[in-house]
């Protein structure tokens, strides 16, 4: 869940994704052109008390910076190009409903999500499978030496980039060619690179990989699912500790109410990704 960023129409913002469902990263990260969401989820019963405790955002409009090319998480509605849909969108709308603010959206490249947040253009930001061509011609089995000599398509700024780069000295030590990286702005371009034969693999959230295979069953397959030590979260600016506290409180309410698990089911995301919200501060 992904990515998002929030901001005030009068000047407040968020991003969240790539941080895994439920983890709230704060200090620099908690949960981020302008399209409308399809609809909001009903707020949990405990939201009335939270809205009273955190009244500062009632009636405001915050900006959620997103990279809408990840089906299941955040994407343009195929039935209406003026709307966004996905887990991230629904979760953000529910947070807004709970605290009494509305959400608008700013579409940016993934690499620009955190800079958009840091610059004040957004307020928050809310992350594996190995995608290969059908038949797995390079016999890739994960982020390991089977990638030596392979071309990996990845999103700029994603956690998989340094993981692939870390293979270079190992490949050299074994006398194998090093892997190469092709960096793109979104998932769709990474997937297209494999379809076009420019890249051999794309490592990303397993749900993104599964959706790509589902859309191209005769051309793509998932070589394997791998475990990577990261959590998906919502990013908020360091200078907004009260907002961080409010979002964290709402996330706990959404988690305890069962709404977060329901959203995973709605968007066909792995329920094993569900985690109790936590706090990660970044200096």
Write a structural description:
With 283 residues, this protein is of the alpha/beta class. The chain has two domains: 6-126 and 230-280, Periplasmic binding protein-like II (D-Maltodextrin-Binding Protein, domain 2), CATH 3.40.190.10; 129-225, Periplasmic binding protein-like II (D-Maltodextrin-Binding Protein, domain 2), CATH 3.40.190.10. It has nine helices and 15 strands. It has helices at residues 47-53, 87-99, 113-118, 160-165, 167-173, 187-195, 206-215, 241-257, 259-266, and strands at 6-7, 13-15, 24-25, 36-37, 61-66, 69-70, 74-77, 80-85, 102-107, 129-133, 151-155, 180-184, 201-204, 220-225, 279-280. The strands form five sheets. Strands 1-2-5-9 form a four-stranded mixed beta sheet. Strands 4-8-7-6 form a four-stranded mixed beta sheet. Strands 13-10-14 form a three-stranded antiparallel beta sheet, with helices on one face. A hairpin with a 3-residue loop joins strand 6 (69-70) and strand 7. Helix 2 (87-99) packs across helix 8 (241-257). The chain is elongated. It starts with 5 loop residues before the first strand and ends with a strand.
Mean pLDDT: 79
CATH topology of the largest domain: D-Maltodextrin-Binding Protein, domain 2
In DSSP terms (H or I, runs of 4 or more residues), the helix count works out at 9
CATH architecture designation of the largest domain: 3-Layer(aba) Sandwich
Strand content: 15-25%
Spans where pLDDT lies below 50 across 5 or more residues: 1-36, 112-119, 121-127
Overall structural domain count: 2
- First CA to last CA: what distance? 23 Å
Rg estimate, integer Å: 19 Å
CATH superfamily of the largest domain: Periplasmic binding protein-like II
**CATH class category label of the largest domain:** Alpha Beta
Biggest sheet character: 4 strands, mixed
Spell out the helices and strands N to C: EEEEHEEEEHEHEEHHEHEHEHHE
């Amino acid at each position: 869940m992904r990515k998002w960023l929030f901001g005030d129409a009068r000047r407040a913002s968020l991003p969240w994704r790539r941080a895994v469902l439920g983890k709230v990263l704060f200090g620099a990260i908690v949960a981020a052109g302008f399209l409308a969401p399809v609809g909001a989820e009903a707020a949990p019963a405990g939201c009335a008390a939270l809205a009273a405790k955190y009244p500062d955002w009632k009636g405001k409009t915050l900006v959620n910076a997103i990279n809408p090319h990840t089906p299941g998480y955040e994407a343009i509605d195929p039935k209406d190009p003026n709307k966004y849909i996905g887990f991230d969108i629904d979760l953000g709308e529910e947070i807004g409903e709970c605290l009494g603010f509305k959400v608008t959206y700013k579409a940016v490249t993934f690499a620009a999500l955190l800079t958009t947040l840091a610059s004040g253009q957004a307020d928050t930001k809310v992350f594996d499978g190995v995608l290969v061509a059908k038949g797995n011609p390079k016999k890739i089995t994960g982020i390991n030496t089977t990638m030596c000599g392979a071309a990996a398509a990845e999103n700029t700024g994603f956690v998989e980039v340094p993981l692939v780069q870390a293979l270079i000295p190992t490949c050299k030590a074994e006398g194998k060619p090093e892997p190469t990286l092709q960096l793109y702005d979104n998932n769709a371009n990474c997937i297209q690179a494999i379809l076009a034969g420019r890249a051999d693999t794309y490592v990303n959230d397993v749900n993104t990989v599964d959706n790509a295979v589902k859309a191209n069953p005769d051309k793509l397959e998932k070589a394997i699912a791998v475990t990577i030590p990261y959590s998906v979260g919502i990013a908020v600016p360091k200078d907004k500790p009260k907002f961080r506290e409010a979002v964290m409180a709402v996330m706990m309410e959404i988690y305890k109410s069962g709404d977060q698990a329901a959203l995973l089911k709605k968007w066909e995301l792995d329920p094993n990704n569900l985690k109790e919200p936590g706090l990660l501060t970044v200096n």
